[in-house]
Amino acid sequence: MSEVFFYHLTTQPLEQTLPKLLGLARKAGWRIAIRGKTADRLDWLDAKLWEGGGFLPHGRAGGEHDADQPILLTEDTAKNTPDCLISVDGADLTPDEVPALKRAMILFDGNDGDAVAFARTQWKAVTAADIPAKYWSQENGPWEMKAQHLAS
């Protein structure tokens, strides 16, 4: 069954957290789409992923090989048929998208009040749709599950 993981980033920024999560998702054999809100921010993230210590094969949406990308950075619907959809920077992820996925992840900046408020609305939408969800926080150092919604 599909589930949504919420990651409340407080001690590590997106560019440090995302590669770790991508590595785990790739190890599971998943194809991944990273959905952002703006092309500039996705270009920045693209550069950060290439600069990182490990090799994470990925591409930006809009190329002729989008469907073949193991990790695709996009502003809208992913053409790589992802198993996992990761929302960053407040990009929309709706409950009706989740059943087609093995997992969805919402990463949000815990130091940004607007990002926290938007993540709360996403949590409410996901749990109201009775989709399993877990809320992870790193406020005390290591990742810790702070809340969980189990489907009925």
Report on the architecture of this protein.
By secondary structure, this protein is α/β, with parallel strands linked by helices. It contains 3 helices and 8 strands. An 8-stranded mixed beta sheet has the order 3-4-2-5-6-1-7-8, sandwiched between helices. A hairpin with a 6-residue loop joins strand 7 and strand 8. The protein is globular and about 40 Å long. The two termini are 12 Å apart.
Please describe the topology of this protein.
Layout (H helix, E strand, L loop, with lengths): L2 E7 L4 H14 L4 E4 L3 H13 L7 E2 L10 E4 L9 E4 L15 E7 L3 H16 L4 E5 L6 E6 L3
Parallel strand pairs: 1-6, 1-7, 2-4, 2-5, 3-4, 5-6
Antiparallel strand pairs: 7-8
Notable traits:
152 residues; alpha/beta; 8-stranded mixed beta sheet
